[in-house]
Amino acid sequence: MALTPKRDALRAKLLDVAEAQIAEGGIVALRARDLATQAGCALGAIYTVYGDLGDLALAVNRRTLTQMTQQMAVSVDGLEKEAPTDILITLSQAYLSYADDQRQRWRTLFSIGISPSDDEPGFFDAVAPLIALYEQPLARLMPANTSRTIARNARTLFAAVHGLVSLGLETRINVVNRGDLERMISRTIATLTDREAHL
Amino acid sequence: MALTPKRDALRAKLLDVAEAQIAEGGIVALRARDLATQAGCALGAIYTVYGDLGDLALAVNRRTLTQMTQQMAVSVDGLEKEAPTDILITLSQAYLSYADDQRQRWRTLFSIGISPSDDEPGFFDAVAPLIALYEQPLARLMPANTSRTIARNARTLFAAVHGLVSLGLETRINVVNRGDLERMISRTIATLTDREAHL
DNA sequence: TGTACATCAGTGAACGCGCGTTCACTGATGTAC
DNA sequence: TGTACATCAGTGAACGCGCGTTCACTGATGTAC
User: Fold this and answer.
1) DSSP assignment of B136-197
2) How far is the CA of A101 from the C1' of D18 (A)?
3) Cβ contact (<8 Å) for A171 and B122?
4) Taken in order A8, A9, A15, A18, is the CA torsion positive or negative?
């Protein structure tokens, strides 16, 4: 609650350390004693700035989602004039890259969610900026449609890409290599958007 | 190792009980003492028929996957003469239904995988029968293509559906209800297969 | 069928571990005069 | 500036819990004669 610089520094330090732990070993690596040791504070100090470890994990997830969205945004920066389909493909490849590079962070996103409790705005609001990245090119592709339709198609597109990335990365499928996965994603986007454009 | 009827009965009983536990509370509900109590055996008995709880969890997952594949197969039974796209849609709706009905079992499938160790045939082989369900209609839809291409497209299709189901069911997205989700899946399949057919 | 012995499936108390969280305390910081 | 006191951030030993797994034992089952 307090916003003194020192408490904020401790809070930030713990968040950094928690993120590093999750990045290395996933959610099971988030252990109070390790965090305290690595943050250079006492065990009890964690509970003076976070309610419990769950809060801390959710804070990490919120940052992961923001960072992922940011990297996806950067990947299409300056491409506003390109064909919408190409922008959507680039966005999706950026998603794949993030998930692949930050596999544990990405996995943790889906293993514990984002919202602290059920009555919170929740995942959807937190994911809104990511979905918005898909909406912009889609709006150009299907200008006659309502924003509601565009929003639904954006979610569909992202969900399909997410599925390809999930099954491609999560399990040890020895048949789909990274290159194949990239092509599957590009083709799926191209196919889906081509049809959208014609409707 | 032993295959006496009694040991097999214990093994089967434990598998049933483990499945019930996972169905109710997910992988975290798989606790040795609860299993022993519910199976009516001693704690140590578990370790006389399974190496450890991980083995038991994997056995449950294998059965879940078999059951899910079976239910999907049943959903398209007798539809062999229908339009391939309709069959693919029916299969995918059956996947959604299973995931929705057996949410914890389905979730556990992806939270711990299927293969006991990294050098095992693994997930892909275990999923092969499920993918095969998608290959049959696809083969009719694109008869000119190689079985390799068909196999790849089957995986792509299933992965896309899986993504829609995952993001639709996993998180508390208050905007996508079950009916919307069903429509998103049908439309995605229709769009993807329409394009495949023309290539 | 009956008896003595061998085997081994199944038992459950005990072990060892790691963890999240608490709370009586300490000592640094701030305030008042 | 110096002193006395109050506040409260931060400490870390201790608590309590639940768990997976083991292993010395028991008693049921099977075998031999």
Assistant:
1) HHHHHH-TTS-HHHHHHHHHHHHHHHHHHHHHHHSS--TT--HHHHHHHHHHHHHHHHHHHH
2) 35
3) yes
4) negative
pLDDT tens digits, B85-96: 999 999 999 999
pLDDT in tens, chain A (199 residues): 445 778 899 999 999 999 999 999 999 999 999 999 999 999 999 999 999 999 999 999 999 999 999 999 999 999 999 999 999 999 999 999 999 999 999 999 999 877 765 555 556 678 999 999 999 999 999 999 999 999 999 999 999 999 999 999 986 544 578 999 999 999 999 999 985 554 3
* d(CA B196, C1' C16) / Å: 59
Distance from CA of B12 to the nearest CA of A (A): 27
Q: Which nucleotide is nearest to B28 (CA to C1')?
A: D19
A42 touches strand D (CB under 7 A): yes
CA of B47 to C1' of D21 (A): 8
Which of the nucleotides in strand C have any atom less than 7 Å away from a protein CB atom?
9-14, 18-24
Give how far the C-alpha of residue A110 lies from the chain's centroid of Cα atoms, to the nearest Å. 9
Distance from the Cα of residue B101 to its chain's centroid: 12
Hey, what are B180's tokens? 């919307």
Burial class of residue A195 in the structure, from the number of CB atoms within 10 Å of its CB (0-12 exposed, 13-18 middle, 19+ buried):
middle
For residue B80, the SS3 value is: coil
A76 touches strand D (CB under 7 A): no
Per-residue pLDDT reduced to its tens digit, A100-157: 999 999 999 999 877 765 555 556 678 999 999 999 999 999 999 999 999 999 999 9
Which one of A123, A172, A192 has the shortest CB-CB distance to B123? A172
